[in-house]
Amino acid sequence: MSQLTEQKDKDNEKNKDIERERLVLKRGNYKGLLESILLVEVEPISYAKLAKMIQLEIKEIRKYIEDLKNEYSEKESGFYIAEIAGGIKLTTNPVYGEILKKFYKKRIN
After folding, report:
1. SS3 for 29?
2. How many helices (DSSP H) and strands (DSSP E) are in the chain?
């Protein structure tokens, strides 16, 4: 395969990725995007950093996060968004904390 063909293929893939991103954001699926970001972030992330990443206002980020919190609460989800160290982090729901402690304690022993 020639270098020109390889470069063309890379450019086509990059354009497809950009189009996928645009489609997600065009649909307004910011909650899903925020949820994905929180899932991969190891440390708490600030509202300001999220706003900068997604190019939304902080108040919009707060609204979407509040919506996610409500959704998790309503369906008694295993997910929980915690306010930690000036940021937010996706964690396990504290309701299930004692059960998880027992399970993992047994697994370790």
Report:
1. coil
2. 5, 2
Measuring CA to CA, which residue among 33, 54, 39 is closest to residue 92?
Answer: 39
Strands (E), 1-109: 79-84, 87-92
In tens, the pLDDT along 10-33 reads 666 765 655 666 666 665 688 999
**Contacts by residues 27-30 (CB-CB < 8 Å, ≥ 24 positions apart):** 30/54, 30/56, 30/60, 30/64
pLDDT for 87 = 95
Domains of the chain: 3-108 (1.10.10.10)
